[in-house]
Write a structure and sequence with these properties.
The chain has 246 residues and is α/β, with parallel strands linked by helices. It has two domains: 107 residues, 4-Layer Sandwich (Metallo-beta-lactamase, Chain A), CATH 3.60.15; 128 residues, Ribonuclease Z/Hydroxyacylglutathione hydrolase-like (Metallo-beta-lactamase, Chain A, 4-Layer Sandwich). It is 22% helix and 22% strand. It has a seven-stranded mixed beta sheet. A five-stranded mixed beta sheet has the order 1-2-3-4-5. The longest helix is centred in the first third of the chain and has 11 residues.
């Protein structure tokens, strides 16, 4: 049985694209990692990029095109300064000539990126460091991944425009009694989670993510007490299919 705790954050879409790299370097067997060729980073906090160095090392193949890592300039600067610095991890940016480990692509707010038939749009949210949510749109379905944010409006205004919106993955990090900590760290409590969902103009499946492990059971109780029929607690390792996209 897979443990319900959400220790690290990663979403893998159609085996090709990953949103965040908290856990992708731990996927087994390694052949599954090699199918991921595009990694989108929401922000620089370690639970969202912890295994990126391992992943890049695991999938490196000088005979094939390298992985593309999509991130804001702020996240790229953090990776160069604090991760790929030859102290914490070898400087893969320096070692990427002539056969690169990776290639950075710079993300800008509300400027979509096309990967095959997927369009992925970063949208600013309100966190303690620059952070993106992602609207992911295919030919027949769309989903929003909204992680690490306090109360926000811009993301919902953008998500409203998506046709065939089939799912929203939304963070809820601390129980209601820790509202002070949610405010300080710019996360959501279940009460704020409900307020954010109310900003949508339609009812779609909503999956709660980013529950802090130490508060997991309390968080589940508070979230389920919201009595939202379209709410589920996201399960690590589970495959979610949204109109043919997994």
């Amino acid at each position: 049985m897979v443990a319900p705790h959400q220790f690290l954050t990663s979403f893998v879409i159609d085996d090709l694209v990953a949103v965040d790299a908290g856990a992708i370097g731990l996927i087994s067997p390694p052949a599954r990692q090699k199918r991921i060729r595009h990694v989108f980073l929401s922000h620089s906090h370690i639970d969202h990029m912890a295994t990126l160095p391992l992943f890049l090392d695991n999938v490196y193949d000088p005979r094939s095109d390298c992985v593309r890592v999509y991130a804001s300039q702020a996240v790229q600067d953090c990776l160069r300064r604090d991760v790929f610095n030859d102290r914490l991890w070898p400087d893969l940016t320096r070692m990427s000539d002539p056969t690169p480990f990776m290639q950075f692509e710079t993300l800008h707010n509300d400027q979509p990126v096309q990967i095959d038939d997927l369009q992925i749009t970063p949208i600013n949210v309100d966190h303690v460091v620059p952070c993106f949510a992602f609207l992911i749109q295919g030919s027949d379905a769309a989903a929003a991944i909204v992680t690490d944010t306090g109360p926000t409006s811009a993301v919902w205004e953008r998500v409203q425009t998506a046709e065939n919106l089939g799912a929203v993955f939304l963070e809820a990090s601390f129980p209601n009694s820790f509202q002070w900590l949610a405010d300080e760290s710019k996360h959501l409590t279940p009460a704020q989670f409900l307020d954010e969902i109310a900003k949508l103009d339609r009812v779609v499946p909503v999956y709660a993510i980013h529950l802090k492990p130490d508060f997991h059971d309390q968080m589940v109780g508070e979230l389920m007490s919201l009595e939202l029929e379209n709410l589920e607690i996201a399960q690590p390792g589970r495959e979610y299919e949204i109109n043919g996209y997994a």
